[in-house]
Amino acid sequence: METGKVDREFFESYIAPRLGASRDDVHTGPKHGVDFGVIEVGEQALAVATDPISILPGLGHERAGRFAVRFVLADVAVSGLAPSHLALSLSLPPAMDDETFAAVWRGVDAECRELGVAVTTGHTARYEDASLPWVGAGTAFAAGDPGRIVLPDGARPGDALVVTKGPAVETTGLLTTLFSGQIELPAETLALAQERLTDTGIVRDALAVREAGTVTAMHDATEGGLLGALFEMAASAGVRLVVDSDAVPLMPGVGETCETLGMDPWRATTGGTLLVAVAPGDADGLVAALDERDTPAAVVGHVEPGSGVERDGEDASRPAGDASWPVYERLSGATQEK
């Protein structure tokens, strides 16, 4: 059985037909490849997103805490509403002592404070069978005006496509930080690659995008990489995405790292990268707004009627898994052997 996120066929066969009670207040329910759902609460909308929580001690404990909550907050921020509340369920291994947990939690607290997010409820316990890095899950909430929500399946023919930061940002930063002694890169290039970890947050970028024009869809390119995100956006909206690879940003250190590790950057997880569908007349203004935040971005293509993804004039194939997982397993296995 394959690891990683389930595919569309699994979701449609096992999950979609059984979603509990049918309620009128569910505006946007579960859909494969969609980051969040929306509940109507009076005249307000509540966007909700859930994601796994992983703690990677090799990043340093406080930094690991920041990294742990960054992606669930991103998943709700692509609604166009600011994350406001967070619930965490943590299943810790007994080997994680109180001092280590306190350092991780300082990182969680710092990340949330900086983004104006309150940890509102949760569950924390130690269990014999729990093990790092996967130690639970988080649910993020964002409340606001329903008219401000960017629906996850809203991309429409004629829209321009904007990408920030480019492929393999998260993978590059993680692998070069966790396994620096095993990756043969010049010291200067390795240092640049490790800096990519600072690019994995997208909350502020997503909110800046929402203010910059008529945005029809936003997606955080995580598991399956940028190519996976393109396929997910295309499938959820029932459209075809046409992309020019040469126009896509490439952050320093990414190309060299992926070449050294024999990894396809377009299929490697890249938390921190936003894929945006926007009205064509607003695309340049959106890129300019991101540039003011020192976030690299570019218009990389457009939306057409049809289905699937066209890359550089040819039909692309949907990623089967994430290119970073085999590399991570290979490097971590070598570390254990040593």
SSE layout and pairings?
Elements: H1 8-15, E1 26-28, E2 37-41, E3 44-54, H2 61-77, E4 85-92, H3 98-115, E5 118-126, E6 134-144, E7 160-164, H4 169-178, H5 187-194, H6 203-211, E8 215-220, H7 225-237, E9 239-243, H8 254-261, E10 274-278, H9 283-292, E11 297-305, E12 309-311, E13 314-315, H10 324-337
Parallel strand pairs: 4-5, 9-12
Antiparallel strand pairs: 1-2, 2-3, 3-6, 4-6, 7-10, 7-11, 8-10, 9-11, 12-13
Helix pairs in contact: 2-3, 2-6, 4-5
In short:
This protein has 338 residues and is an alpha+beta fold. It has helices spanning 8-15, 61-77, 98-115, 169-178, 187-194, 203-211, 225-237, 254-261, 283-292, 324-337; strands spanning 26-28, 37-41, 44-54, 85-92, 118-126, 134-144, 160-164, 215-220, 239-243, 274-278, 297-305, 309-311, 314-315. The strands form two sheets. Strands 8-10-7-11-9-12-13 form a seven-stranded mixed β-sheet. The chain has a six-stranded mixed β-sheet with strand order 1-2-3-6-4-5.
Through-space gap between termini? 29 Å
Structural class: alpha+beta
Spatial arrangement of strands, main beta sheet = 8-10-7-11-9-12-13
Q: Tell me the strand percentage band.
A: 15-25%
User: CATH homologous superfamily of the largest domain?
Assistant: PurM-like C-terminal domain
CATH class division of the largest domain: Alpha Beta
H/E element sequence: HEEEHEHEEEHHHEHEHEHEEEH
Number of extended strands: 13
- Count of DSSP-assigned helices: 10
Q: At the third CATH level, what is the topology name of the largest domain?
A: Phosphoribosyl-aminoimidazole Synthetase, Chain A, domain 2
Q: Which spans of ≥5 residues are poorly predicted at pLDDT below 50? A: none
Spatial extent as radius of gyration: 19 Å
Q: What about the largest sheet?
A: 7 strands, mixed
The global form is globular
* Helix share, percent: 25-40%
* CATH-derived architecture of the largest domain: Alpha-Beta Complex
List the quaternary state of the chains. Answer: single chain
Quickly count the domains: 2
Quote the average pLDDT: 94
